[in-house]
TrEMBL record:
Belongs to the Bfd family. GO terms for molecular function: 2 iron, 2 sulfur cluster binding; metal ion binding. Pfam families: Fer2_BFD. It comes from Intestinibacter bartlettii CAG:1329. This is Bacterioferritin-associated ferredoxin. Residues 5-54 form the BFD-like [2Fe-2S]-binding domain. The lineage of its organism: Bacteria, Bacillati, Bacillota, Clostridia, Peptostreptococcales.
Amino acid sequence: MEDRVVCTCLDITYNTIKEAIENGAKTLDDIKDETEAGTICGMCEDEIQEILDELVK
Ligand code: FES
């Protein structure tokens, strides 16, 4: 489900994370810089990492 919300603090969806990866993000910190996902409570960090593991080749 591409439009599922990954970061509930900021309402950031899987698609937004995926786009950041397509734009060159390769690490959790890159995602935080580009989307701000994971920068509030940090609960979504594991899920962001899973998406990175899945999409970053
Ligand atoms: S759910 Fe992503 S920072 Fe809180």
